[in-house]
Design brief:
three-stranded parallel sheet; flat; 2 domains; single chain; 5 strands
Length: 89
Amino acid sequence: MARKRIFCIGFELPGDDFEYIDFGSDQSLLDADVVLFRPGFGQHYASESYQGQPLFSHSTSVQVANDPTLARGTRFGRERRKARRGVPQ
């Protein structure tokens, strides 16, 4: 049986069986047999918590808001793309 391709998106696992794929990569997920995701915001991590929920620092929250790879498909991302094209909101 052929060896399975296992992609790890946003995190690394030890061993030669796993291929690390950066969150913002253009790598097609169709090339993998198994895809493992770490839910989150790419390389941005919460440094503390508030009422049991992850809390970003002020600088990290600005980086997340300005990261174009995270805005795809969201209302924020659509508004940003319209603004770049000069479409009124």
